[in-house]
Amino acid sequence: MAFGSVPTPLGDMLAAVTEDGVAGVGWSHGREERLRERLLARLGLAEVGDPARTAPVLDELARYYAGELRVFGSPVDWRLTTPVQRRVLGTLYETVGYGEAVTYGELAARSGTGVPARAIGSIMGANPIPVIVPCHRVVAGNGLGGFSGGEGVESKRWLLTLEGYLQPMLDWG
To answer: In terms of DSSP H, where are the helices of the chain?
Structure first.
C-alpha cells in the first residue's frame, strides 16, 4: 500500500492506495504514522513508496477542495468494508452526487439492505474513505446529523457549503 498526503482547509488528508484503488482516506491531525500502521495492519499489506500510485488521488483531493472537481475518478478498493457496509456505501457513492444530500432513512431505503436509519449513521461513521465516498452528504431528517471526520459536524458543514448544498454562514465579526 502506498501513502500520500495533501493539505486541505480542514487539515492534512492522508490517502492509502492499494494496487486496486483508494482503500483509506482520513484527516491525519498529526497522527499520520498511527493511521498508516492501522491501515497496514487491517489489510495485512506492506508499505511501498509509490508516488505514481498516490498522485492521481492526491490531485483529485486537492482539486475537490479547491472547488474544481465534482466527481472522483480514482478507483475505490472496498476491502475495508463488510458486505453490508459495501452495499450501503456503494449506494451512497453511486447515487448521491456533488451538491446533493440524502437522509439516513432515504439511504437505508435506497440500499435495500434492511438496515435501519440509526445503523446507517454507524456505517457512515465507519466509512474508511470519507470525501471520496461522500458520507458528509448523509444528513438527519431534522438537521445535519453527526460526522466523525475532521473536526466533526463543522467539517461536514464546511464540505456541504463547498458543494453548494448549504449556504455560507455570515460572519458577523
So the answer is: 32-43, 51-65, 83-95, 104-111, 117-125, 153-162
Cβ burial, residue 143 (10 Å; 0-12/13-18/19+)? exposed
Q: Is 135 noted as a catalytic residue in this protein?
A: yes
CB-neighbour burial class of residue 15 (10 A; exposed 0-12, middle 13-18, buried 19+)? buried
* Structure confidence by residue, pLDDT tens digits, 65-121: 999 999 999 999 999 999 999 999 999 999 999 999 999 999 999 999 999 999 999
Measured distance CA(172)–CA(69) in Å, rounded: 30
Which domains, from first to last, does the chain contain?
Answer: 2-65 (no CATH), 83-162 (1.10.10.10)
Catalytic residue among 17, 92, 120, 135: 135
pTM (two decimals) = 0.93
d(CA 24, CA 139): 22
Asked if 16 and 28 count as a contact pair (C-beta separation under 8 A), the reply is: no
Alpha-carbon gap, residue 72 to 159, rounded angstroms: 15
